Amino acid sequence: MDVEHISYIHLTSTSTQKSITFEELKTWLTYYENLLTKTGQQLNWEYEQTGFPYKVMETESSLYLKGTLPQYYSILLDITVTDETAAIKIALPSKATHGDKGKANELAKFLAKKLKGQLQLFNGRIMSF
C-alpha cells in the first residue's frame, strides 16, 4: 500500500513508558473509542460513529484502521523500535481523505499526551508532551 503522509510519536526518556507493544496500542485504541462513546452519551448523540469512524484490523506487521463511513478510507499504525527508542508510526495511504488526516492528527495528539511522547506531525512540526 502506498503511503503518502507519516507522523511519529517518539517515546522519550520522559515518556510514561519506554516501549510499546501492539497489544498495548490496541488497548489505547479501545480506551480512545470508549472515551468517544462516553462523550456521545453525555451529549445524547451517537458520537462514537463520527468520532472514531474506523474498524480496527490487525495485519502481520501493523494495525489497520478501515473507514466505516464513506468520507474515511484508512489509517495505518505501526511500531518502530531502534536500539535507543520506540515510536508509533501513523501513516496515511495515498487514498486517504482529508477526514482521515484530521482523525489521524486527533488520535496522534491523544496518544502522545497519554504517553507523554514527542509527536512529529505530518507537516514535520514537533509537539512535546
3D architecture notes:
The protein is of the alpha+beta class and 129 residues long. The chain has one domain: Rbstp2229 like protein (TATA-Binding Protein, 2-Layer Sandwich), CATH 3.30.310. It has 3 helices and 7 strands. A 7-stranded antiparallel beta sheet has the order 2-3-4-5-1-6-7, covered by helices on one side. A hairpin with a 5-residue loop joins strand 6 and strand 7. The longest helix is centred in the first third of the chain and has 22 residues, at 22-43. The mean pLDDT is 90.
Short description:
InterPro entries: DUF1885 (IPR015062), Rbstp2229-like_sf (IPR036294). By secondary structure, the protein is an alpha+beta fold.
Principal-axis shape equals globular
Order of helices and strands: EHHEEEEHEE
CATH topology value: TATA-Binding Protein
* Poorly predicted sequence stretches spanning 5 or more consecutive residues: none
Major beta sheet, specifics? 7 strands, antiparallel
> Main sheet: which strands, in order across?
2-3-4-5-1-6-7
Strand tally is 7
Share of helix among residues?
25-40%
Number of domains: 1
Can you name the CATH architecture? 2-Layer Sandwich
Give the count of helical stretches.
3
In the CATH scheme, the class would be Alpha Beta
* Helix/strand structural class: alpha+beta
Overall average residue pLDDT: 90
Percentage of residues in DSSP E strands:
25-35%
| CATH homologous superfamily annotation | Rbstp2229 like protein
